Amino acid sequence: MTKTRIAIIGTGGIAAFHVKQYLRMDDVEVVAGADIVEGKARSFLDAQGLSSARAFSSAKEMLDAVKPDAVSVCTYNSTHAECAIAALEHGCDVLLEKPMTVTLAEALALRKAEKLSGKILTIGFQPRYDARMKKVKEVIRSGDLGKIYYIQTGGGRWRGIPGGTFIEKKYAGVGALADIGCYGLDMALNAIGYPRPLTVSAVSFDYFGKNPKYSPPKDAARFSVDDFCGAFIRLEGGITLDFRMSWAMHMDTTGATIFLGTDAGLKVEPAGLGELWGGAWDGSCGNVTLFHDYLGSPTSTPIPLPEPKEDNFYLKCRSFVDAVRERLPAPIPTSEIIYNQAIIDGIIRSSESGHEVSVEFTE
Ligand SMILES: NC(=O)c1ccc[n+]([C@@H]2O[C@H](COP(=O)([O-])OP(=O)(O)OC[C@H]3O[C@@H](n4cnc5c(N)ncnc54)[C@H](O)[C@@H]3O)[C@@H](O)[C@H]2O)c1
C-alpha cells in the first residue's frame, strides 16, 4: 500500500493533535515538519517519536525538498494564508486549521490559489464531525421547522482567555471572534446550508483581556485583540443571525442556540456552565428540544442524541486523508467557509466604524 506522505507546517500546540491522528493511520506517513522558530520542528518531531521525519525552519524549503502529497497547516492565524498558498502552489492538498484566515482579502487569495492548483483545501472545523451536531443539522434539514427566519447563537466562556499567540494581533489577527466565534458561526450556517451574508452590525470589546485583574499582568500588557463581540447579521433568504462570542464576561453563558421557524423551533442548550455555544468546540451540547404545536397547543419534544463513537479530531484528519487518497471533494469546502470569513470581516469592519456594513465580494 502506498502511504500518503504528509508534512506539518507550524509545529506548535495544535500540530501535536494532527500528528496524533495521523499516527493512528497505517496509510499515512508524517514525513516532515517546518516551523519558523529555529529548532522547534526538530524537537517537536522527536517528541512525537518521528525522529526519521525531516525538520525545517522554512515551509517553502520543506515543500521544495520533501515534496509531500499533503500538508496540515497549523500555524497561528496571521500566517494561514501564506503557508496554505505556498503548499497549494507546491501541488499539495491542504488541511488548514480554523479560522480560514484573518482577513477576507487573504481568504479570497487562498480561494484563488486553490482553484488554480486544482488541489484539495479543507478547513479544520472538527465539531462538524460530532454525532450530536450532525443530529442538529438533520433536524434542521428535515424541513420540520418550516421556513427558518431567526437564529440566535454564539455563547462563549465565562472566563477562558487563552495565552500564547492567541492574544496578540500580529499572530492571531482576531481574538475570541475568530478563535471560537468561527465555530459558532459554522454550526449555525452549516445547519442551514451556508446562505450568503448580506449585512453586519457589530460591536466588540477588550475589557477583560487588557485588565490585569482578569488576565495575568504580562498577558494584559500585550493583549491586542477582542475578548467579546456581538453582531446582528442579515443573511440571504430572509434569515437573521443574532450572534455573540466571549472569552470572558460577568455571565455564565449568553444562552442557548435557537433556530426559529414558521412551523417549529429548535433549542440547543449549552453542555454545561461556561461552555461555548450550545455545542462546545468539540461538538458537545446539552438538551436539544423541538418546540412545536400538537393538537393545537404549543408543546416541546426532546430530541434523542447519539453518543459519539469516534474522536472528532480523528474524523477531521481521516476525512481529509480519504479525500486525498480517493480524490474526493474537500470535506469542509472553502466555498462555504468564505462566508464564515466574510462575517468575521464584517464584524471587524462594523465594530471599528460604529455602523452597519454590507458584505460584498466577488470571486
Ligand atoms: N481545531 C482546534 O481545535 C484548534 C485548537 C487550537 C488551535 N487551533 C488553531 O491552530 C492554529 C495554531 O494554534 P496553536 O495553538 O498550535 O498555536 P501555536 O502558537 O502554539 O503554534 C503555531 C506555530 O506556527 C509557527 N509558525 C507561524 N508562522 C509560521 C510559518 N510561516 N512557517 C512555519 N511555522 C510558522 C509558530 O512558530 C508556532 O510554533 C491557530 O490557527 C488556531 O486557531 C485549532
Summarize the structure.
By secondary structure, the protein is α/β, with parallel strands linked by helices. Helices cover 34% and strands 23% of the residues. The chain is globular, with a radius of gyration of 21 Å.
Roughly what is the average pLDDT, rounded to an integer? Answer: 96
Predict the CATH topology of the largest domain: Dihydrodipicolinate Reductase, domain 2
Gross CATH architecture of the largest domain: 2-Layer Sandwich
Name of the level-1 CATH class of the largest domain: Alpha Beta
Taken from the alpha-carbon principal axes, the silhouette is: globular
The total of beta strands comes to 15
Strand content: 15-25%
CATH superfamily of the largest domain: Dihydrodipicolinate Reductase, domain 2
Sequence of secondary-structure elements: EHEHEHEHEHEHEHHHEHEEEEEEHHE
**Oligomeric state of the chains in view:** single chain
Output the structural class. Answer: alpha/beta
Major pleated sheet: 9 strands, mixed
Number of domains: 2
Going across the biggest sheet, name each strand in turn.
Answer: 14-13-12-11-7-10-9-8-15
Distance between the terminal alpha carbons, to the nearest Å?
39 Å
- Rg, Cα atoms, Å: 21 Å
Q: In DSSP terms, counting alpha (H) and pi (I) runs of 4 or more, how many helices?
A: 12
Present as ligands are: nicotinamide-adenine-dinucleotide
Description:
By secondary structure, the protein is of the alpha/beta class. The protein folds into 2 domains: 4-127 and 312-332, Rossmann fold; 129-309 and 343-357, Dihydrodipicolinate Reductase, domain 2 (2-Layer Sandwich). It has 12 helices and 15 strands. Strands 14-13-12-11-7-10-9-8-15 form a 9-stranded mixed beta sheet, covered by helices on one side. Strands 3-2-1-4-5-6 form a 6-stranded parallel beta sheet, sandwiched between helices. α5 runs antiparallel to α12 (334-353) and α9 packs across α12. The protein starts with a strand and ends in a 5-residue tail after the last strand. Nicotinamide-adenine-dinucleotide is lined by residues 9-15, 34-37, 40, 59, 74-77, 79, 83, 97-98, 124, 126, 164-165, 179, 281.
